[in-house]
Amino acid sequence: MARLGHWLALALVAALAVAASPMALADATADTDPGGARITITSQQLREYAAANLPGVEGPKYEYSWTSYCSKGGPESADKDPWCDGAVTACTRINTSGPGPAVFVWRKLTQEADGTAVTDGAWDRLGLTCFPDLVPGRAGALTMAHILQAFHDTPFSTPYASIQPVNLRTLVNLPTYFAAAYPTTGYQPGEVDTTTILGFRVEIRPTATSYTYHFGDGTTLGPTEDPGGPYPDGAIRHTYQRTATYPVRVDTVYSGQFRVNGGQWIDIPDTVTIQGTTSQLQVLEAVTRLH
Question: What pLDDT, in 10s, does the model give residues 192-220?
Answer without folding.
Answer: 999 999 999 999 999 999 999 999 999 99
